[in-house]
């Protein structure tokens, strides 16, 4: 809990309530596997909280396919300066998220039921986040249209992050992204550090077919 205290600071009591809710209702409703209950802090909460290192101050954020609120709800806890929309298509998950937001007393979070493609004309954000939602090739198609020019997609990825960047190259080129890079956050706080693919938006896609830094 020493690392959790360092990462969450004064917000640790809120994070603890969220962990309890995940271990109880989250497991009961199938949002978190039963085996995950004993490793919620390192594998989920701290792993997601360190993503905040890459998020600009006062950003407007959409968490795509938010599920149990990872990483969106965790970011809302650790960074009250952020305005966060948890975007999730499944009703049982949005019900869970609404209950969690109310339980934790978070006033910087909106829960929205829907898919990225359905809300693309309704708003634009500074940052889009996602964890275990889809390969980068598909995720980029959903996330990039939601970003303002210069906005960022921060996708939590695993060992295949570099390969996913290569596979997504045609889509990223079509969207004319400014930069694509691999970042590692949470050094010394979580092992292994959290890997992010950071994609910076440039412009809308052309009407066509379809850290360690790595340029695309």
UniProtKB/TrEMBL annotation:
Documented EC number(s): 2.1.1.-
GO molecular function, one term: methyltransferase activity
Subcellular location: Cytoplasm
GO term, biological process aspect, one: methylation
UniProt entry keywords in alphabetical sequence: Cytoplasm, Methyltransferase, rRNA processing, S-adenosyl-L-methionine, Transferase
Enzyme class: transferase
Transmembrane stretches, start-end: none
Main location: cytoplasm
Residues binding S-adenosyl-L-methionine: 65, 70, 116-117, 131
A Pfam entry, by short name: GidB
HAMAP family associated with the record: 16SrRNA_methyltr_G (MF_00074)
Function description: Specifically methylates the N7 position of a guanine in 16S rRNA.
Sequence similarity: Belongs to the methyltransferase superfamily. RNA methyltransferase RsmG family.
Identification of the protein by name: Ribosomal RNA small subunit methyltransferase G
Organism: Actinomadura gamaensis
């Amino acid at each position: 809990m020493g690392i959790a205290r360092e990462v969450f600071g004064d917000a640790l009591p809120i994070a603890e309530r969220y962990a309890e809710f995940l271990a109880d209702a989250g497991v009961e409703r199938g949002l978190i596997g039963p085996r995950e209950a004993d490793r919620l802090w390192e594998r989920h909460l701290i792993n997601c909280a360190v993503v905040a290192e890459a998020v600009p101050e006062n950003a407007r954020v959409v968490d795509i396919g938010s599920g149990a609120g990872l990483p969106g709800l965790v970011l809302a806890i650790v960074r009250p300066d952020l305005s966060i929309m948890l975007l999730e298509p499944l009703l049982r998950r949005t019900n869970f998220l609404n209950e969690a937001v109310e339980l934790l007393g978070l006033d910087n979070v909106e829960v929205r039921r829907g898919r990225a493609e359905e809300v693309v004309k309704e708003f634009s954000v500074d940052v889009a986040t996602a964890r275990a939602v889809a390969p980068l090739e598909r995720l980029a198609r959903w996330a990039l249209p939601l970003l303002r020019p210069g906005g960022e997609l921060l996708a939590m990825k695993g060992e295949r992050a570099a390969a996913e960047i290569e596979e997504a190259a045609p889509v990223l080129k079509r969207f004319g992204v400014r930069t694509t890079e691999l970042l590692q956050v949470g050094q010394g706080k979580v092992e292994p550090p959290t890997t992010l693919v950071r994609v910076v938006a440039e412009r809308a896609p052309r009407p066509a077919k379809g850290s360690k830094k790595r340029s695309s």
